[in-house]
Design a protein that fits this description.
single chain, 310 residues, mainly beta, Neuraminidase, 4-stranded antiparallel beta sheet, 42% strand
Protein backbone atom coordinates (compact mmCIF):
# COMPACT_ATOMS: atom_id res chain seq x y z
CA UNK A 1 0.00 0.00 0.00
CA UNK A 2 2.82 2.41 0.85
CA UNK A 3 4.53 1.65 -2.47
CA UNK A 4 1.32 2.20 -4.38
CA UNK A 5 0.71 5.54 -2.66
CA UNK A 6 4.30 6.60 -3.24
CA UNK A 7 4.03 5.69 -6.93
CA UNK A 8 0.77 7.66 -7.26
CA UNK A 9 2.32 10.76 -5.66
CA UNK A 10 5.42 10.35 -7.85
CA UNK A 11 3.26 10.25 -10.99
CA UNK A 12 1.37 13.34 -9.85
CA UNK A 13 4.60 15.26 -9.26
CA UNK A 14 6.05 14.06 -12.55
CA UNK A 15 2.97 15.12 -14.49
CA UNK A 16 3.01 18.49 -12.76
CA UNK A 17 6.69 18.87 -13.61
CA UNK A 18 6.07 17.97 -17.25
CA UNK A 19 3.35 20.60 -17.39
CA UNK A 20 5.48 23.28 -15.73
CA UNK A 21 8.68 22.53 -17.64
CA UNK A 22 7.54 23.82 -21.06
CA UNK A 23 6.17 26.95 -19.40
CA UNK A 24 9.46 27.49 -17.61
CA UNK A 25 11.36 27.01 -20.84
CA UNK A 26 9.13 29.54 -22.56
CA UNK A 27 9.69 32.00 -19.72
CA UNK A 28 13.45 31.49 -19.89
CA UNK A 29 13.33 31.85 -23.64
CA UNK A 30 11.62 35.21 -23.24
CA UNK A 31 14.55 36.41 -21.16
CA UNK A 32 17.14 35.29 -23.71
CA UNK A 33 18.35 32.43 -25.86
CA UNK A 34 21.83 31.28 -26.79
CA UNK A 35 22.10 33.87 -29.56
CA UNK A 36 22.03 36.58 -26.90
CA UNK A 37 25.41 35.39 -25.60
CA UNK A 38 26.82 35.76 -29.11
CA UNK A 39 25.76 39.40 -29.22
CA UNK A 40 26.62 40.30 -25.62
CA UNK A 41 29.24 38.39 -23.65
CA UNK A 42 27.73 36.89 -20.48
CA UNK A 43 28.44 39.08 -17.47
CA UNK A 44 28.68 42.30 -19.47
CA UNK A 45 27.02 45.12 -17.56
CA UNK A 46 25.10 48.17 -18.68
CA UNK A 47 27.04 51.33 -17.84
CA UNK A 48 25.43 54.67 -17.03
CA UNK A 49 27.34 57.44 -18.82
CA UNK A 50 25.33 60.48 -17.75
CA UNK A 51 22.11 61.45 -16.03
CA UNK A 52 20.14 64.46 -14.83
CA UNK A 53 18.14 64.90 -18.04
CA UNK A 54 14.38 65.33 -18.31
CA UNK A 55 13.88 62.88 -21.20
CA UNK A 56 16.60 61.58 -23.52
CA UNK A 57 15.93 60.62 -27.15
CA UNK A 58 17.31 60.38 -30.69
CA UNK A 59 20.81 58.89 -30.23
CA UNK A 60 22.99 58.77 -33.35
CA UNK A 61 26.74 58.42 -33.92
CA UNK A 62 28.82 60.65 -36.20
CA UNK A 63 31.54 59.30 -38.48
CA UNK A 64 34.03 59.17 -35.59
CA UNK A 65 31.66 57.38 -33.25
CA UNK A 66 30.74 60.31 -30.99
CA UNK A 67 27.10 60.04 -29.95
CA UNK A 68 24.59 62.87 -30.28
CA UNK A 69 21.30 62.68 -28.41
CA UNK A 70 18.46 64.98 -27.44
CA UNK A 71 17.07 66.14 -24.12
CA UNK A 72 13.79 67.23 -25.67
CA UNK A 73 12.01 68.91 -22.72
CA UNK A 74 15.16 70.99 -22.15
CA UNK A 75 15.29 71.79 -25.90
CA UNK A 76 18.90 70.76 -26.46
CA UNK A 77 21.10 68.36 -28.40
CA UNK A 78 23.97 66.84 -26.44
CA UNK A 79 27.21 65.14 -27.51
CA UNK A 80 28.89 62.30 -25.66
CA UNK A 81 32.43 62.24 -27.04
CA UNK A 82 34.69 59.19 -27.25
CA UNK A 83 36.83 60.75 -24.51
CA UNK A 84 33.84 60.61 -22.17
CA UNK A 85 33.29 64.36 -22.30
CA UNK A 86 29.67 65.53 -22.38
CA UNK A 87 28.86 68.85 -24.06
CA UNK A 88 25.88 70.75 -25.46
CA UNK A 89 25.86 70.82 -29.25
CA UNK A 90 22.82 73.05 -29.76
CA UNK A 91 20.32 74.88 -27.56
CA UNK A 92 17.62 75.71 -28.49
CA UNK A 93 17.19 72.85 -30.93
CA UNK A 94 13.60 73.13 -32.15
CA UNK A 95 12.61 70.51 -29.58
CA UNK A 96 14.47 67.90 -31.61
CA UNK A 97 13.51 64.27 -31.12
CA UNK A 98 14.73 61.51 -33.49
CA UNK A 99 17.94 62.19 -35.43
CA UNK A 100 20.19 60.77 -38.15
CA UNK A 101 23.35 61.75 -40.03
CA UNK A 102 23.49 61.83 -43.83
CA UNK A 103 26.55 60.98 -45.95
CA UNK A 104 27.67 64.61 -45.97
CA UNK A 105 27.79 64.79 -42.19
CA UNK A 106 24.62 66.85 -41.83
CA UNK A 107 22.54 66.08 -38.76
CA UNK A 108 18.83 65.63 -39.57
CA UNK A 109 16.35 66.03 -36.74
CA UNK A 110 12.63 65.73 -36.12
CA UNK A 111 12.12 69.23 -34.71
CA UNK A 112 8.59 69.05 -33.40
CA UNK A 113 8.44 72.50 -31.80
CA UNK A 114 6.89 73.64 -35.08
CA UNK A 115 6.46 70.14 -36.58
CA UNK A 116 9.42 70.45 -38.93
CA UNK A 117 12.41 68.54 -40.25
CA UNK A 118 15.76 70.26 -39.70
CA UNK A 119 19.02 69.68 -41.53
CA UNK A 120 21.91 70.92 -39.35
CA UNK A 121 25.23 71.39 -41.14
CA UNK A 122 28.55 70.65 -39.39
CA UNK A 123 28.93 74.41 -38.82
CA UNK A 124 25.51 74.35 -37.07
CA UNK A 125 23.72 76.23 -39.84
CA UNK A 126 20.09 75.11 -39.77
CA UNK A 127 18.08 74.49 -42.93
CA UNK A 128 14.38 74.08 -42.26
CA UNK A 129 12.86 71.63 -44.72
CA UNK A 130 9.38 72.51 -46.08
CA UNK A 131 7.34 70.26 -43.80
CA UNK A 132 3.71 70.20 -44.83
CA UNK A 133 1.50 67.57 -46.42
CA UNK A 134 -1.44 68.60 -48.59
CA UNK A 135 -0.95 72.14 -47.33
CA UNK A 136 -1.36 71.19 -43.67
CA UNK A 137 1.17 71.03 -40.85
CA UNK A 138 2.48 67.64 -39.82
CA UNK A 139 1.37 66.13 -36.51
CA UNK A 140 4.85 66.03 -35.02
CA UNK A 141 7.75 64.27 -36.80
CA UNK A 142 9.11 61.75 -34.33
CA UNK A 143 11.79 59.48 -35.78
CA UNK A 144 13.57 59.19 -39.12
CA UNK A 145 15.86 57.11 -41.29
CA UNK A 146 17.87 58.27 -44.31
CA UNK A 147 18.11 55.91 -47.28
CA UNK A 148 21.25 55.45 -49.44
CA UNK A 149 19.92 57.98 -51.98
CA UNK A 150 19.46 60.70 -49.36
CA UNK A 151 15.69 60.40 -49.10
CA UNK A 152 14.26 60.68 -45.59
CA UNK A 153 11.58 58.39 -44.16
CA UNK A 154 9.93 59.70 -41.02
CA UNK A 155 7.10 58.81 -38.69
CA UNK A 156 4.47 61.39 -37.78
CA UNK A 157 2.45 60.33 -34.72
CA UNK A 158 0.52 62.75 -32.55
CA UNK A 159 1.73 63.33 -28.99
CA UNK A 160 0.37 66.52 -27.48
CA UNK A 161 3.28 68.75 -26.46
CA UNK A 162 3.23 71.39 -23.74
CA UNK A 163 5.00 73.84 -26.07
CA UNK A 164 2.25 73.73 -28.71
CA UNK A 165 -0.58 76.22 -28.91
CA UNK A 166 -2.90 73.81 -30.74
CA UNK A 167 -4.92 70.94 -29.27
CA UNK A 168 -6.01 69.03 -32.36
CA UNK A 169 -4.17 66.80 -34.81
CA UNK A 170 -3.31 68.76 -37.99
CA UNK A 171 -3.37 65.70 -40.27
CA UNK A 172 -6.29 63.32 -40.77
CA UNK A 173 -4.29 60.38 -39.39
CA UNK A 174 -0.94 59.32 -37.97
CA UNK A 175 1.19 58.25 -40.89
CA UNK A 176 4.67 57.64 -42.32
CA UNK A 177 6.14 59.95 -44.94
CA UNK A 178 9.01 60.05 -47.40
CA UNK A 179 10.96 63.20 -48.20
CA UNK A 180 12.35 62.54 -51.65
CA UNK A 181 16.08 63.03 -52.34
CA UNK A 182 15.34 66.47 -53.82
CA UNK A 183 14.34 67.44 -50.26
CA UNK A 184 11.36 69.33 -51.62
CA UNK A 185 8.68 66.71 -52.11
CA UNK A 186 6.93 64.82 -49.27
CA UNK A 187 4.72 61.83 -50.02
CA UNK A 188 2.70 59.69 -47.61
CA UNK A 189 3.86 56.06 -47.81
CA UNK A 190 2.03 54.36 -44.91
CA UNK A 191 -1.48 55.23 -43.72
CA UNK A 192 -2.79 52.10 -41.97
CA UNK A 193 -0.91 52.08 -38.65
CA UNK A 194 -2.41 53.30 -35.39
CA UNK A 195 0.60 55.25 -34.13
CA UNK A 196 3.87 54.79 -36.06
CA UNK A 197 6.99 55.62 -34.08
CA UNK A 198 10.37 53.85 -34.36
CA UNK A 199 11.84 53.43 -37.84
CA UNK A 200 15.04 52.05 -39.38
CA UNK A 201 16.11 50.56 -42.70
CA UNK A 202 18.74 48.11 -43.86
CA UNK A 203 22.03 49.62 -45.12
CA UNK A 204 21.38 48.30 -48.64
CA UNK A 205 18.20 50.38 -48.82
CA UNK A 206 15.98 47.42 -49.68
CA UNK A 207 13.97 46.92 -46.47
CA UNK A 208 12.53 49.22 -43.83
CA UNK A 209 11.12 48.42 -40.39
CA UNK A 210 8.40 50.55 -38.83
CA UNK A 211 7.00 50.14 -35.33
CA UNK A 212 3.34 50.74 -34.56
CA UNK A 213 3.75 51.54 -30.87
CA UNK A 214 0.02 51.77 -30.16
CA UNK A 215 -0.66 48.58 -32.10
CA UNK A 216 2.27 46.86 -30.34
CA UNK A 217 3.68 45.48 -33.58
CA UNK A 218 6.68 46.06 -35.82
CA UNK A 219 6.31 45.66 -39.59
CA UNK A 220 8.77 45.24 -42.45
CA UNK A 221 8.33 46.64 -45.97
CA UNK A 222 10.12 46.40 -49.29
CA UNK A 223 11.41 49.77 -50.51
CA UNK A 224 10.59 50.63 -54.12
CA UNK A 225 12.81 52.61 -56.47
CA UNK A 226 10.44 55.57 -56.21
CA UNK A 227 10.48 55.50 -52.40
CA UNK A 228 7.11 53.84 -52.00
CA UNK A 229 6.73 50.85 -49.67
CA UNK A 230 5.21 47.46 -50.46
CA UNK A 231 4.98 43.87 -49.21
CA UNK A 232 3.94 44.71 -45.66
CA UNK A 233 4.90 41.83 -43.37
CA UNK A 234 4.60 41.38 -39.62
CA UNK A 235 8.12 41.30 -38.20
CA UNK A 236 7.27 40.80 -34.52
CA UNK A 237 4.50 41.22 -31.97
CA UNK A 238 6.12 44.17 -30.22
CA UNK A 239 5.99 47.90 -30.84
CA UNK A 240 8.91 50.23 -30.24
CA UNK A 241 9.74 53.83 -29.46
CA UNK A 242 13.08 53.97 -31.28
CA UNK A 243 15.16 51.24 -32.89
CA UNK A 244 18.41 50.32 -34.61
CA UNK A 245 19.93 47.40 -36.49
CA UNK A 246 23.31 45.66 -36.56
CA UNK A 247 25.31 44.40 -39.54
CA UNK A 248 23.85 40.89 -39.16
CA UNK A 249 20.28 42.17 -39.39
CA UNK A 250 19.37 41.87 -35.72
CA UNK A 251 16.83 44.51 -34.72
CA UNK A 252 16.97 46.36 -31.39
CA UNK A 253 13.58 47.62 -30.14
CA UNK A 254 12.97 49.89 -27.17
CA UNK A 255 10.34 50.42 -24.50
CA UNK A 256 10.89 48.25 -21.44
CA UNK A 257 14.65 47.95 -21.83
CA UNK A 258 16.04 46.88 -25.22
CA UNK A 259 14.52 43.81 -26.90
CA UNK A 260 16.62 42.13 -29.58
CA UNK A 261 15.15 40.14 -32.50
CA UNK A 262 17.03 38.33 -35.23
CA UNK A 263 16.51 39.09 -38.92
CA UNK A 264 13.63 36.59 -39.05
CA UNK A 265 11.74 38.23 -36.19
CA UNK A 266 12.68 35.61 -33.60
CA UNK A 267 13.18 36.97 -30.08
CA UNK A 268 16.79 36.79 -28.87
CA UNK A 269 16.77 38.55 -25.51
CA UNK A 270 16.20 41.69 -23.49
CA UNK A 271 18.69 44.15 -22.03
CA UNK A 272 17.29 45.47 -18.78
CA UNK A 273 17.73 49.21 -18.15
CA UNK A 274 17.16 50.73 -14.67
CA UNK A 275 14.72 53.38 -15.91
CA UNK A 276 10.95 53.48 -16.32
CA UNK A 277 11.19 53.82 -20.10
CA UNK A 278 13.80 53.21 -22.77
CA UNK A 279 13.20 55.61 -25.65
CA UNK A 280 15.84 54.96 -28.27
CA UNK A 281 19.10 53.25 -29.15
CA UNK A 282 22.07 53.44 -31.54
CA UNK A 283 25.53 52.00 -32.06
CA UNK A 284 28.59 54.17 -31.61
CA UNK A 285 32.20 54.26 -30.48
CA UNK A 286 35.25 54.00 -32.70
CA UNK A 287 34.40 50.44 -33.76
CA UNK A 288 30.59 50.71 -33.64
CA UNK A 289 30.45 47.90 -31.08
CA UNK A 290 28.96 49.93 -28.27
CA UNK A 291 25.18 50.10 -27.91
CA UNK A 292 24.11 53.52 -26.62
CA UNK A 293 20.72 53.74 -24.94
CA UNK A 294 18.64 56.81 -24.14
CA UNK A 295 16.32 56.01 -21.26
CA UNK A 296 14.29 58.68 -19.49
CA UNK A 297 16.77 60.66 -17.37
CA UNK A 298 19.96 58.91 -18.45
CA UNK A 299 22.36 57.84 -21.19
CA UNK A 300 23.62 54.25 -21.01
CA UNK A 301 26.06 52.01 -22.87
CA UNK A 302 26.74 48.29 -23.20
CA UNK A 303 29.50 46.55 -25.15
CA UNK A 304 28.49 44.21 -27.98
CA UNK A 305 30.32 41.62 -30.07
CA UNK A 306 28.55 42.58 -33.28
CA UNK A 307 29.07 45.84 -35.12
CA UNK A 308 26.10 48.12 -35.51
CA UNK A 309 24.84 49.48 -38.81
CA UNK A 310 23.78 52.80 -37.21
Amino acid sequence: MYSSLYYTLYKMKLNKFLIILPLACIAMGFIQNKSFDVIITPGTKVEKLADGFLFTEGPVADAKGNVYFTDQPNDRIMIWELSGKLTTFMKPSGRSNGMAFDKEGNLWTCADEKNELWCIAPDKKVTIIPSKYLGKNLNGPNDLWIDPDGGVYFTDPYYKRSWWDHNTMPQDLQAVYYLKPDHKTIIRVIDDLIQPNGIVGTPDGKTIFIADIAGNKTWSYTIGKDGTLANKKLFCELGSDGMTIDVQGNLYLTGKGVSIYDKNGIFIGNISIPESWTANVCFGGNDMKNLFITASTGLYKIRTNIKGAY
